Amino acid sequence: MSRKEVTIGIDIGSTAVKAVAADEHGQVVARTRIPHRLVVPAADKLEHDARQAWRDGPLAALDRLGRPDARAVAVSAMVPSLTAVDDDGVPLTPGLLYGDSRGRVATPASGMGFMVGETAEFLRWTAGQAPDAAGYWPAAAVANYALGRQPVIDFATAFTTMPLFDGTAWNAKECADCGASPDRMPRVAAPGAAVGTVGDTDAVLATGAIDATCEQMVAGADRDGDVLVLCGTTLIVWVTIPEYRDVDGLWTIPHTAAGKCQIGGASNAGGLFLNWLDGLVAQADPTPADPARVPVWSPYIRGERTPYHDPQKRAALDGLTLAHDAASVRRAAFEASGFVVRHLIELGGAPASRIVATGGGTRVEPWMQAIADATGLPVEVSAVPEGAALGAAFLARMATGLESSLADAARWASTERTIEPSVAWRSAMEDRYGRFLELAGAG
């Protein structure tokens, strides 16, 4: 393989920028991680220092990879997000993130995996803070401008800004209603399109995609009944189904595999909840916990997204006694995340056969075991936890003509290990799942 066939994917996540350089087989030849803070100025707010996370982080990640031979670079990022920028593309305001109350809409309407109107409210607040800004950009546009002077996002990211984006272009009336104009919004291009060059190199700057889409491309969860679980700061669950299905509270989106869809959604019961718990209780190993002596967490420390779409939901620890220790409390937290996965699968109504897990959380063995135990399904853990960055690297290949189809990214899927459900935990967890549903108001 020629060194010149290496491409780079950069993923802007909630707590870090992850980047990989991958060869034509999807083998990671270099990787790096640049941490940044997830800022919570109040219980209902969630933001980044957009300059640190969206601009400086991707530049530092590219530098640390040390791959001047890379053919192309593409960026993936979470949605929605928004900041105001100056003439040099430098952020002027906080980077608002999914679920922040400044994006709350009076009458929520869910569609295609996002909350319609959330980005418009972000824009209204941001334009009010910086009315003379040169632009109002999501995270990917900030990163792409830093890398190649191109404030570009992909069509799917643009769709999540509806009604600001009407499917073909920025809607002048909707933008004006929020204090902006189409010329201050980012350029929109197809994922995998060549849109410029990176810095003073010959590397192509490619349009990336939403992080969950990039994860999906290289996960290999393409068969009916496959469940893709993205274990990041946000827990995302997608069940592969053969046709569109409308279920109240859930999202249904197109699969990257032709003719298929995915049903599920995003939950706050991922790393956001588990990392918060780490700061509260002793770092005890939950593995030796007694199956019969585990309390039940309702994990909604900042409300919940799918299926409740309720920012006012709050966490609770139920059934706590003197018999419980740090190990049992931590096991309960992992179980709560697993129960969320099970609940979303059951709500979707489609038979599930296996779980494919990806994301940084796959390194946490007790979390993966709890998901297997809660669902009764084997968990196949991806060999590359930086799935979003890997998917972006595949899109970078498309921009150079090395690939021609998104569907071909499935050949990059690889499994590191498989975790089977534990029979010893089945009965006790079944009882706790019932209590979990009662606490959530779903019982």
Topology readout:
Blueprint: E1 7-12, E2 16-22, E3 28-35, E4 47-48, H1 50-65, E5 72-77, E6 81-85, E7 95-97, E8 109-111, E9 114-116, H2 118-129, E10 135-137, H3 139-148, E11 152-154, H4 155-159, H5 172-177, E12 187-189, E13 194-197, E14 204-210, H6 211-219, E15 226-231, E16 235-241, E17 251-254, E18 261-267, H7 271-278, E19 296-298, E20 316-318, H8 326-348, E21 354-358, H9 365-375, E22 379-382, H10 387-399, E23 415-419, H11 426-440
Parallel strand pairs: 1-5, 5-14, 11-12, 15-21, 21-22
Antiparallel strand pairs: 1-2, 2-3, 4-7, 6-7, 6-10, 8-9, 13-14, 15-16, 16-18, 17-18, 19-20, 22-23
Which labels suit this protein?
443 residues; alpha+beta; Nucleotidyltransferase, domain 5; 29% helix; six-stranded mixed beta sheet; seven-stranded mixed beta sheet; 23 strands; 2 domains
Ranges with pLDDT <50 over ≥5 residues?
A: none
The outline comes out as: globular
The chain-level mean pLDDT equals 94
Radius of gyration (CA) equals 21 Å
CATH topology of the largest domain: Nucleotidyltransferase, domain 5
> What is the spatial order of strands in the main beta sheet?
17-18-16-15-21-22-23
Structural class: alpha+beta
- What CATH architecture label of the largest domain applies? 2-Layer Sandwich
Number of strands: 23
CATH superfamily of the largest domain: ATPase, nucleotide binding domain
Overall tally of structural domains: 2
- Give the count of helical stretches: 11
Helix content: 25-40%
Question: What kind of assembly state do the chains in view correspond to?
Answer: single chain
Between the first and last Cα atoms, what is the distance in angstroms? 56 Å
- Percentage of residues in DSSP E strands: 15-25%
Query: Tell me, what is the CATH class of the largest domain?
Result: Alpha Beta
Describe the biggest sheet?
7 strands, mixed
